[in-house]
Amino acid sequence: MALPSTRAIANSAQVLDLIPIVNSITSLLQTLNPRNPIPINLTSSPLSRFSPFLDPNLVTLVIHKQTNPYHALFFFNWASNPNPNPNNYSHNHTCYEAITDLLLRHSLFHPTVKLLEKSQKLSDFFVGKIIKAYGDRGNIKAAIFWFNKAKSFEKDKYFYSFNSILGVLVKANLIDLVETLFDNVVKEGVVQPDVSSYTILMRVLCKKGMVESARKVLDEMPCEPNLIAYNTLINGYCKKGDLESANLVFDKILTEVDSLPDVVTYTTLIDGYCRKGEFVEAKRCLNMMMKAGCSPNVVTYNAIIYALCLKGEVDEAKKMITEMTLNGVKDNTATHLNILKGLAVAGRSLEALEYFKWMAGCNMNLDAKAYIVVVKEYCKLRKIDEAIFLLKGMCERGFSHNMPQMGCMPNSVSYRTVICSLCGTEGRMQEVGYLVDDMLRYGIPIDATMYGCMLEGYGKTGNEDVAMQVFNEMIGKSYIISLESFSVFVKMLCAKGMIEKAENFFEDICRTFPVVERDGYRKILDKHLQITQGSSKENSREENL
């Protein structure tokens, strides 16, 4: 085993020496408790006693220690111009990077820009960070604004901004825009794309299924491709199910690339085999990985566990969890969510419900996916009341994990499952209305499937007013009405003697959806009209007798 260098030991010792000072400064900042970027009537003089200790390492450690970004900013501003300043201290690049990262992590964009502008540090490097932060929060418009701003003041030095905006656009799935931007920058010849730029382009091509084009980019890029570029190509082949080509790239890494395959390389291959159901090959790859001295992580094991659970092989998946634990890898919520889904796939609903309760009892951060699985299982077992209670945020039998508090709001899938189950259960249509009201209050729209179930439910119960309202809303939103739903609806109308309305609703469908199979709807309507007319004739005959 390689021993740490003398410099590393010295740096570690220096950090240890600074920890008591860092803790003292943090305690003082908590006492001062600045609550905004420019604290009013708040003196920084208590910090003066720490002036002799100021150096970039100390400042960076203090910033990293703060959970409140305003505390860090207050300290940073004081250290920018301390009084006294016996060592002539000034911030270096690392200090500015630390405070910028912290502020952006808390979405404090205005204080970040103001700080960088005031210190004349608003460079391409830091603009790249601002672009990424806006992208992480889904504000693509602001990210593009800052890229254009970087182009305007950096002229031929907006390299970091360029790579950042490419990454943001890929994450937002704006694939065509990435290609256009990349081509324009290359054509301008102002910025020379590096391996990161070309790797992003490869990722875009792989997302479009153009893996061979991505391969061409790898082969022809003017700079030396790195392991990340090769991993991107392997991932592209695995997503297409072309494991043979993926392995050829893997072999090339072993023979031609300076870096050895890493955990991402092996995990990508293992996931590719699992998606094809080739578990023997996946295990072989896992063993090869461990023999090569590359330790699998929880993502590696979860790939195998997920694939096994998808096939309903839950017991085999549980064995993998045991193996993972024995190898020193800690499971996570995703691991157990896979087991939960696997139990549902295998039809082991009661076990799935118990497993969910166990997960909740372990204080796992259960998201909407976990709740959807359990809601569906309750509905399968016709335990709709339990599903409704869970939908509203409460687990039964003593668990009180409120979904909104956990950041787990019910979504359209969970509501759809319960609403459609209620629509198929006699005497429960009134509750459908209550759930729809709740759903709309949460800002969740009614989808086509829910509308179809509601149309059938109200049709079967003979509630023509609400059924017609549902029908009209579906037409208004251009939701295609299935033949089955239409049959239930017109059967109710015909039974109530509303023949003209049934004809009008048929015409509404044909007018709104000219491409639908008109004959299919006509046959259904004619069938119910004949039944109704036959019943009318029979009733008339009985009256005459």
From TrEMBL:
Source species, domain of life: Eukaryota
Signal sequence extent: none
Keyword entries, A-Z: Repeat
Swiss-Prot/TrEMBL PPR repeat ranges: 194-224, 226-256, 262-296, 297-331, 367-401, 411-446, 447-481
InterPro entries cross-referenced by the UniProt entry: PPR_rpt, TPR-like_helical_dom_sf
UniProt name for this protein: Pentacotripeptide-repeat region of PRORP domain-containing protein
Native species: Gossypium mustelinum (Cotton)
